């Protein structure tokens, strides 16, 4: 029997090929170019996959946009009209021109160089009527000139002359009463308020807790909190608005709508008790207690500076209305109650919770009648109103 012995010895190159080193050298020369040539191929393959993914994403996004436009009820399509401010948290963007769309309205909105809704002010008048409030005073859903501060401005101009007052509408949607105090401590851009109109809504208590501009000490005194840095939502809004046309897509509007609904849910939950976590030994701050102190402080600042006040409530009834009326009566502040949606649904949009153009006009009439009926408010505006000639 012949045994085959396997050894670990490697064969010499000349034993593998009759051509020896020459053939191996030729093979190595041909192998290197094939390896280098495969790199561009892999790169082209990768780019093709990325392009396919991009096209698929765009097609899917377009299909989703078409579906949302046809079948979904998406509110508030359009760019954001407010931005971050370290003191007031949110202010309107300056010199803004934009549209907002929903199933209820098409809103044209513009701001002036001060970041307030409306046209730029003339330099001559130095007296103003100051408006403090949220999206109802801002006039969310109605076109420029249809919000009640603008309507009151036109009415007073007809009575006192076009150069007598300007209307400083400092309202920003989704904000509470803490910013009232910050604004009242400011210089009003060089204007002198002759009258301050405060608008109170059914979301103010929750907004005050959410914002955290002020909190209460154990003895019930207001404590100004340090300015909060902008959240991730601010940078997301900036990125969306920086891409032309993206803010007008229904997909972005739906995402914003879901975020607002989530915020509203957390706000209603905060109506119970929200503890102040800055001091573990400090008792919990109740929304009603904080809101009452904010309103009282705002009134005290106005009184110390000689600003007459009138307060208007919007979409507020039941115990909440009785509560704020009790505060106003205790502070001797004239107040006006605007009808609620339940009382006058014709003054509100069908789905959106804001006053429509007719509702804004109705509130302007209520406020004007209150201002002219109350002698301190009427006297604050100066001379007695001119009698309008009969048509």
Number of domains: 1
CATH topology: Rossmann fold
Specify the number of helices. Answer: 12
What structural category characterises the helix and strand content?
Answer: alpha/beta
Number of strands: 11
Give the overall pLDDT as a whole number: 82
Provide keyphrases for this structure.
alpha/beta; 5-stranded parallel β-sheet; about 45% helix; Rossmann fold; 12 helices; about 400 residues; two-stranded antiparallel sheet; about 15% strand
In brief, what are we looking at here?
The chain has 391 residues and is an alpha/beta fold. It has twelve helices and eleven strands.
Structure overview:
The chain contains 12 helices and 11 strands. It is α/β, with parallel strands linked by helices and 391 residues long. It has a single domain (82-380), classed as Rossmann fold, CATH 3.40.50.1110. A hairpin with a 4-residue loop joins strand 3 (97-101) and strand 4. Helix 6 crosses helix 8 (250-270). It is elongated, with a radius of gyration of 33 Å. The relative contact order is 0.11. Mean pLDDT is 82; it is low at 13-17 and 270-283.
Task: List strands and helices in order, with pairings.
Layout: H1 13-16, H2 21-71, E1 82-85, E2 89-92, E3 97-101, E4 106-110, E5 127-132, H3 135-138, H4 148-160, E6 166-169, H5 178-184, E7 192-201, H6 204-211, E8 214-216, E9 222-224, H7 232-242, H8 250-270, H9 287-304, E10 309-314, H10 318-331, E11 335-337, H11 357-373, H12 375-380
Parallel strand pairs: 5-6, 5-7, 7-10, 10-11
Antiparallel strand pairs: 1-2, 3-4, 8-9
